[in-house]
C-alpha cells in the first residue's frame, strides 16, 4: 500500500500554495492579466472571430465579384457605345457626303437651268430681232414698191399722150387677135 506521504502532495508543492497571495508588482500583474485576458478571449472568442472573419471574407469576395461583374458590364457597354459612336460617325460622314453630292448636283442643275433660261432668252431676243428686221424689211419693200409705183405712174402719165395710148391699145388688140386666130 501506499504511504500517506505518497498520497499527499509533496511538501514543496505546499510551500508554493502557501505563497499564493497578492502580488503588488503592477508590471508583472498587468502582463499576467493581459495574457489571461487574451487567452480567454482567444479561447472563447475564437468561434466568434472566425465567424466574423469568414463573413468579412465572403463580403469582400462578393464585393470583388460584383465589382468584376460591373466592370465587365461597363466594358461591354463601353464597347457597344464605341461601336455606336463609330456607326454614328460613319452615318454622319455618309450624310455629309450625300449632302455635298446633293448640293453639287443642285448647283449644277441650277447652273444648267440658268444656262437654259439664258439660251431661251437669247433665242427669244434673236427671234424678236429677226421678226423686227423682217418687219422693217417688209415696210421698206412696201414703201419702195409704193414709191416705185408712184414714180412709174408719174413717168407714164408724163410720157403718155393720146397718140402713144392709142398705139399701145392697137398693139394689144393685135396680139389678142393673133392669139384667137391661132389654131390649137
Automatic annotation (TrEMBL):
<keyword id="KW-0793">Thylakoid</keyword>
<keyword id="KW-0934">Plastid</keyword>
<dbReference type="InterPro" id="IPR002146">
    <property type="entry name" value="ATP_synth_b/b'su_bac/chlpt"/>
</dbReference>
<feature type="transmembrane region" description="Helical">
    <location>
        <begin position="31"/>
        <end position="53"/>
    </location>
</feature>
<dbReference type="GO" id="GO:0046933">
    <property type="term" value="F:proton-transporting ATP synthase activity, rotational mechanism"/>
</dbReference>
<keyword id="KW-0138">CF(0)</keyword>
<dbReference type="GO" id="GO:0045259">
    <property type="term" value="C:proton-transporting ATP synthase complex"/>
</dbReference>
<comment type="function">
    <text>F(1)F(0) ATP synthase produces ATP from ADP in the presence of a proton or sodium gradient. F-type ATPases consist of two structural domains, F(1) containing the extramembraneous catalytic core and F(0) containing the membrane proton channel, linked together by a central stalk and a peripheral stalk. During catalysis, ATP synthesis in the catalytic domain of F(1) is coupled via a rotary mechanism of the central stalk subunits to proton translocation.</text>
</comment>
<keyword id="KW-0150">Chloroplast</keyword>
<protein>
    <recommendedName>
        <fullName>ATP synthase subunit b, chloroplastic</fullName>
    </recommendedName>
</protein>
<keyword id="KW-0812">Transmembrane</keyword>
<comment type="similarity">
    <text>Belongs to the ATPase B chain family.</text>
</comment>
<keyword id="KW-0175">Coiled coil</keyword>
<keyword id="KW-0375">Hydrogen ion transport</keyword>
<keyword id="KW-0813">Transport</keyword>
<keyword id="KW-1133">Transmembrane helix</keyword>
<comment type="subunit">
    <text>F-type ATPases have 2 components, F(1) - the catalytic core - and F(0) - the membrane proton channel. F(1) has five subunits: alpha(3), beta(3), gamma(1), delta(1), epsilon(1). F(0) has four main subunits: a(1), b(1), b'(1) and c(10-14). The alpha and beta chains form an alternating ring which encloses part of the gamma chain. F(1) is attached to F(0) by a central stalk formed by the gamma and epsilon chains, while a peripheral stalk is formed by the delta, b and b' chains.</text>
</comment>
<comment type="function">
    <text>Component of the F(0) channel, it forms part of the peripheral stalk, linking F(1) to F(0).</text>
</comment>
<dbReference type="Pfam" id="PF00430">
    <property type="entry name" value="ATP-synt_B"/>
</dbReference>
<keyword id="KW-0406">Ion transport</keyword>
<keyword id="KW-0472">Membrane</keyword>
<keyword id="KW-0066">ATP synthesis</keyword>
<dbReference type="GO" id="GO:0009535">
    <property type="term" value="C:chloroplast thylakoid membrane"/>
</dbReference>
<feature type="coiled-coil region">
    <location>
        <begin position="57"/>
        <end position="98"/>
    </location>
</feature>
Amino acid at each position: 500500500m501506499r504511504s500517506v506521504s505518497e498520497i499527499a502532495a509533496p511538501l514543496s508543492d505546499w510551500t508554493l500554495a502557501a505563497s499564493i497571495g497578492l502580488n503588488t508588482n503592477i508590471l508583472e500583474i498587468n502582463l499576467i492579466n493581459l495574457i489571461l485576458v487574451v487567452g480567454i478571449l482567444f479561447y472563447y472568442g475564437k468561434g466568434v472571430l472566425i465567424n466574423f472573419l469568414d463573413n468579412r471574407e465572403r463580403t469582400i469576395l462578393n464585393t470583388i465579384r460584383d465589382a468584376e461583374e460591373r466592370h465587365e458590364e461597363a466594358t461591354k457597354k463601353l464597347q457597344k457605345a464605341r461601336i455606336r459612336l463609330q456607326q454614328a460617325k460613319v452615318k454622319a460622314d455618309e450624310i455629309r457626303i450625300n449632302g455635298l453630292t446633293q448640293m453639287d448636283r443642285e448647283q449644277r442643275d441650277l447652273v444648267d437651268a440658268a444656262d437654259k433660261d439664258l439660251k431661251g432668252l437669247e433665242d427669244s431676243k434673236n427671234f424678236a430681232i429677226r421678226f423686227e428686221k423682217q418687219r422693217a424689211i417688209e415696210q421698206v419693200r412696201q414703201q419702195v414698191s409704193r414709191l416705185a409705183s408712184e414714180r412709174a405712174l408719174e413717168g407714164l402719165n408724163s410720157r403718155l399722150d393720146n397718140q402713144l395710148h392709142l398705139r399701145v391699145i392697137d398693139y394689144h388688140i393685135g396680139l389678142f387677135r393673133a392669139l384667137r386666130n391661132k389654131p390649137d
